[in-house]
C-alpha cells in the first residue's frame, strides 16, 4: 500500500487562517457565544456571477479549496471529498422558511438548489472543471474524518494520486436559535482565553472550512504523513484510554512515541471529561494543544485540528495560544489527534513528520 | 410607470443578489438576459415567481417569459396591463 501525505492546506475560520504564509500570528479575540468566520476577500477567488448565489459555507469551501490547490501548486485533482455536518444550512433555512411564510406557494428555486449538502463539493468541481469522483459525507462530528478515510483508502490503493479533502460548516440563524434552546450553546458570553476552562455547559458555536490536498506523492511541500485514522460512533468515557492505546498499538506505537496530542476540548463541562481522561491520564506527560477556543465548535471543527497538526509538523513550532500544558515538546515527529462532540462520534488521527 | 420601473429594478437586484449592480446601472431598455444584465434560466424562474407573488400575474407558459423579461421597460408595460394586485 502507498503512503498518504498532506500535500497542502487551506483554511477559512474564525481566525485569519486564510493567509497560508502565517501561522496564528494574529489572534481574533471575542467575548461571545457564537463566532463567525473571518471573511477573506471572496471576490479575489470567486467570479461575481457565481458568487451571487453562494451562501457563506459555499464561499468558504470554494476559497479554502483554492488555497489548498495553490499551496499544492496543482490546477486539478483526481477526486473531491467533502465532509459537512449541517450542509448548506443558510439556504435550507431560507427555502423552508419561504414554504411556511408563503403558505407553500411562490417558491423560488435558487435557495432550494443551493441547499443540498453536496453543493460545496459540486461548486468546487464546477469551478475546477473536475469531473472525477465527488462525494460528500454527512456524519455529524465525524463528517470530515469520513471524507479523509475515503481519500486515504483511494490513495493507498492507487485509485487516485491527488485528492482534495475538506470539512465545511456554516452558521444559520434558525439553527443557532434551536441549539440555544437545547443548551448546546453556552448560556453566557465567554472570551477566547477563558473558553477552555469554562465551568458551564455548551460550546461556543462557529463555522469554517478547511481543505487539504492529500497525495500519494511526497515532495518538499508536504506537511505531514497521514498514518492512520479511526472513528467510533459511540465510546464510553472510561473506554477512551483503552481506545487510544489500541489505536497506537495498531500502529506499533506507545504513549512515549507521541510527541504532541491535539485535543478537541470545547469547554463544555458535560463532555470535556473525555478529553480530560487523556490529558490527565495517559498523556499527562505529553505536550498538549487545543484549538476550539480559536475556531469554535461545529461538526467539522476537527478539520481545523487537522490543519493545526499539519502546520505544527511542517513549521516545527507550536504557537503559544494553543498550548494546554507546560510540557515542552522535545521532538515534533508524531502527533495524535483526538476529537468527539457531545460524547459521540470520536476520532483518532495519527500524523507523522515527513 | 417610472415608479414601477424603479421598483422592478430594485426587486431584480435584491431577489437575484446582483451585489455589484446599482439601480442607476440598469437602463429601461437594457436586455436582462444574454449580453445585457447576464441573467440566466434560474433567474427567469425567480422572476416568474416574483410576478405571481407581487403582482398576481400567473405565467402558465414559461416561454411567455422570454418576451416579457426582455427589458425592464417591457416588463413594466406587461405588469401595468395585467396586474391583479
TrEMBL record, chain A:
Listed SUPFAM superfamilies: Thiolase-like (SSF53901)
Domain Beta-ketoacyl synthase-like N-terminal per the UniProt entry, residue ranges: 44-218
GO cellular component, one term: cytosol
Gene3D superfamilies in the record: 3.40.47.10
InterPro entries: Beta-ketoacyl_synthase (IPR000794), Ketoacyl_synth_N (IPR014030), Thiolase-like (IPR016039)
Top-level taxon in the UniProt lineage: Bacteria
Keywords assigned by UniProt, alphabetized: Transferase
Entry-linked Pfam families: ketoacyl-synt
GO molecular function, one term: 3-oxoacyl-[acyl-carrier-protein] synthase activity
Any single GO BP term: fatty acid biosynthetic process
PANTHER family in UniProt: 3-OXOACYL-[ACYL-CARRIER-PROTEIN] SYNTHASE, MITOCHONDRIAL, POLYKETIDE SYNTHASE-RELATED
Protein name as catalogued: 3-oxoacyl-(Acyl-carrier-protein) synthase
Organism: Ulvibacter antarcticus
TrEMBL record, chain B:
Keywords for this protein: Phosphopantetheine, Phosphoprotein
Pfam families: PP-binding
Statement: the UniProt record of this protein carries the keyword Glycosyltransferase: no
Annotated InterPro entries: ACP-like_sf (IPR036736), PP-bd_ACP (IPR009081), Ppantetheine_attach_site (IPR006162)
Segments forming domain Carrier: 2-83
NCBIfam families (UniProt xref): PRK09184.1 (NF006617)
Name of the protein: Acyl carrier protein
Species, as recorded: Ulvibacter antarcticus
